[in-house]
């Protein structure tokens, strides 16, 4: 679907008139798989990356779906409130996309979500990570993702940090980002993603 169609309004999944993501389509997303991942503990997701869930993420990332940021941030805030106690001084940070992807899309979807989520949580949004040069991870197998994942922490917060990403596949990206934050003295208190691959 061309970006110009999305900008006219309507649900990005079913194309019905109304909000960017209608409630029936959100309800039809598959639940995420198990939240436990090696070296990370629990990774909380809104839905599985398949069917409607995959279409939502693809619209956000590849079809200029910035209209999806607000409704998805609402859902992320609800999910985080369900699984975590309030954390005074919380900072929300994100796994940055590559510079090339950001230039192509005109935005970093994880940054937009993190900033919107932080507003809903009464938290700050902090760019605490920088991506090291390397190939995009889309389409790589587990070994390739582990090798390609690399991040540097650019600052520390002195307080609790929530780490956000769009999709969790093998966990390699979140592990690398979490390790960078921990090395800088700001280990994440939680990991939150839009979608987990089944």
Number of domains: 1
N-to-C span: 25 Å
CATH class: Alpha Beta
- How many individual helices? 8
- Just name the CATH architecture: 3-Layer(aba) Sandwich
CATH topology tier name: Rossmann fold
Determine the structural class based on helices, strands and strand pairing: alpha/beta
Supply Rg: 16 Å
The run of helices and strands is HHEEHHEHHEEHEEHE
Count all strands and give the number: 8
* % residues in beta strands: 15-25%
| Outline type | globular
Largest sheet: 6 strands, mixed
Average pLDDT number: 86
Low-pLDDT sequence parts: 1-7, 144-148
Q: What fraction, in percent, of the residue positions are helical? A: 25-40%
Strand order of the largest sheet: 1-2-8-7-3-4
Which key terms come to mind for this protein?
single chain; 198 residues; alpha/beta; Rossmann fold; six-stranded mixed β-sheet; two-stranded antiparallel sheet; 8 helices; disordered N terminus
Quick description:
This protein is α/β, with parallel strands linked by helices. The protein is built from eight helices and eight strands; from the N terminus they run ααββααβααββαββαβ. It has one domain: Rossmann fold (3-Layer(aba) Sandwich).
